[in-house]
Amino acid sequence: MPHASVRRGVSLTETLFLLVLVGVAGAVVVPPAIISRTQQAAHVAEQLADDLDALRSAATEQRRVARVVFDPVGGSYDSYLAVDGDGVITYGPAEQAALAGSAVRTIDLPVRLGRGARPALPGYPEADAVSFASAAVTFDTRGLLLPHGDRGVIYLRAVESPDALAAVSISGNGTTRVWRWHDGDGWR
């Protein structure tokens, strides 16, 4: 007589082992995908610093005046490169086109321009979002800030977390630095 095949189900131990395995795999994979509000603000600040460095490089390489204009309410910034050689920015489409696609950047939510209630970066002018006059940063043909000797800071904050702040400072020689707000330690 042939032996009857017995179908056996999954045991409770096997099910628990599988759940623990899936939980451990999830714990390893998911946290890198979840970015804190502070990291989001810092990421936007690093992108802004990169954009400012690229604009400064374009000014020096092409020997033209360059400017970035911030819109704190709209959450964006536009970049321009003087095209006619007179060093005057007229905010025309040709001046944006001269930057080959990097002329306009919208800051994605959940980060916006602004400092909130935290203190200003030490040694820099007070400002809620942008400390530069007319919310604009201008580089001369040598990559120095105009007016000469000017310096300032652009603040970025997470919309949902007022303590998640980052900033980009620009020195008179045009170099940028990214800062983060740390509770208890201030700006670092």
Please explain how this structure is put together.
The protein is an alpha+beta fold and 188 residues long. Helix content is 28%, strand content 24%. The protein contains three helices and ten strands, in the order H-H-E-E-H-E-E-E-E-E-E-E-E. The strands form two sheets. It has a five-stranded antiparallel sheet. Strand 9 and strand 10 form a beta hairpin. It is elongated, with a radius of gyration of 25 Å.
- Helices, by number, come to 3
Q: Could you name the ranges where pLDDT drops below 50 across 5 or more consecutive residues?
A: none
Q: Strand share of the residues?
A: 15-25%
Mean pLDDT: 87
> Radius of gyration from the CA trace?
25 Å
Tally of domains: 1
For the biggest sheet, the summary is: 5 strands, antiparallel
What distinguishing features does this structure have?
188 residues; alpha+beta; minor pseudopilin epsh fold; 5-stranded antiparallel β-sheet
List the helices and strands and how they pair.
Blueprint: H1 12-33, H2 37-62, E1 66-71, E2 76-81, H3 93-97, E3 104-106, E4 111-113, E5 136-139, E6 145-146, E7 152-158, E8 165-170, E9 176-182, E10 186-187
Antiparallel strand pairs: 1-2, 1-5, 2-3, 4-7, 5-6, 7-8, 8-9, 9-10
